[in-house]
Design a protein that fits this description.
The complex is a heterodimer of chains A (109) and B (237).
Chain A lengths: L4 H26 L6 H7 L2 H15 L10 H17 L2 H18 L2
Helix pairs in contact in A: 4-5
Chain B lengths: L1 H38 L4 H11 L2 H12 L4 H11 L2 H13 L4 H9 L3 H13 L5 H30 L11 H10 L6 H16 L7 H24 L1
The chains are: A mainly alpha (109), B mainly alpha (237).
Chain lengths: 109, 237
């Protein structure tokens, strides 16, 4: 899972500039401007629209197993999602997710 | 003057104290990013540049994931910057409080505009809307002067540790687990849940499309589904 070295710096620089412009957008450039309601309504869901789709293939077809679905990862995911929604605990989700992963890996050898 | 000075100082320290608990949240993410990026073959300068220049955990993990999948540069940037678009909302929300500051300060504040500083800051300014602008600025810097150094430090620790952790620990799973921890608390309304489900189902069924374009299509579909669900729900109520 070594990444293409020629892409690393362009990604870092591009992300640095792009992210800064997003942060500076209204505060520095656009000022106190009303945004259309339909635009705000879509903006509210961008994060939840991108991130689950990004990780779903990583969980279902992990590179570590050569792309074969892995019981430990699926059970660990279910645990982490449950803890995250139920307890709203970020650290709890990370710790129990990893704990479950190791426990199932140990039990299934 | 003395009382004003004191109150600015006190506001700074209140921000510092309010930011303190978030150090516990930031440390594991920073460390895991450092570990994951090092495992993916980045050197320490690249890993640190990422955390210092971009300073946005979720987008950094997105970029890293797509780099590992060898997606084209433009797709990596578009997808990861989309993750950061929410910060445009934060930027807009701070205009009433910081809009009149001089440009230099606005540049620094923008650099430090992250989920936690926004959430704490906006709460403070809504509770105490009439305090002088110097106090508002002091509070904001109080939050970030505790959080940002720990973010850098955690990334460094992760990068230093990274290469020495054996494969048996399945650290490839650090990326999905961090995202789950970030997303799960956001699933608080029905439209958010619908968005997440559409995102997962569409991304998995469109995974055959080359250049990770399937993810972008899935994200647009999911975003529209969420916005539409919100609209329908409002009409129903």
């Amino acid at each position: 899972m070594i990444v293409d070295p020629s892409k690393i710096w362009p990604v870092i620089i591009g992300m640095a500039i792009g992210t800064f412009f997003v942060r500076y957008s209204f505060l520095g450039l656009l000022g106190d401007r009303e945004l259309p309601e339909w635009f705000l309504r879509h903006l509210r869901y961008v994060g939840v629209a991108v991130l689950p789709g990004l990780i779903a293939p990583l969980i279902l077809w992990p590179q570590a197993t050569g792309g074969t679905p892995d019981l430990a990862r699926i059970v660990a995911t279910i645990t982490a999602v449950t803890i995250g929604i139920w307890k709203k605990s970020v650290i709890g989700a990370v710790l129990l997710g990893f704990g479950t992963l190791y426990a199932v890996q140990y039990l299934t050898g | 003057m003395t009382t004003l000075y004191n109150s600015v100082k006190n506001t700074f320290w209140r921000g510092f104290r309010d930011g303190l608990p978030f150090v516990l949240v930031v440390m594991p993410f920073g460390t895991l990013f450092g570990v994951a990026a090092t495992e993916a073959g980045m050197d320490i300068l690249q890993v640190m540049s990422f955390s210092v220049l971009v300073i946005a955990g979720a987008a950094q993990f997105s970029a890293l994931t797509l780099l590992i999948e060898d997606a084209p540069l433009i797709i990596i940037l578009l997808t990861s910057l989309a993750v950061n678009l929410r910060m445009a909302m934060y930027s807009a929300a701070l205009v009433p409080h910081f809009g009149k500051l001089r440009t230099g300060l606005k540049l620094v504040i923008s650099y430090f505009l992250v989920d936690q500083s926004y959430a704490l800051g906006i709460r403070e300014y809504e509770e105490r809307p009439d305090q002088p602008i110097d106090n508002k600025v002091a509070y904001f810097f109080g939050i970030m002067l505790i959080m940002a150094p720990f973010w850098y430090l955690a990334t460094y620790l992760g990068a230093a540790l990274g290469a020495s952790i054996p494969d048996a620990f399945s650290l490839d799973f650090a990326v999905p687990i961090c995202f789950i921890a970030l997303i799960a608390p956001l699933l608080r309304t029905i439209p958010h849940i619908i968005t997440a489900i559409v995102s997962v189902v569409a991304a998995l069924s469109l995974a055959w499309i080359p250049y990770s374009l399937g993810l972008i299509i899935a994200a647009i579909m999911a975003m529209m589904a969420g916005a539409y669900a919100e609209l329908k729900l409002k009409a129903y109520k």
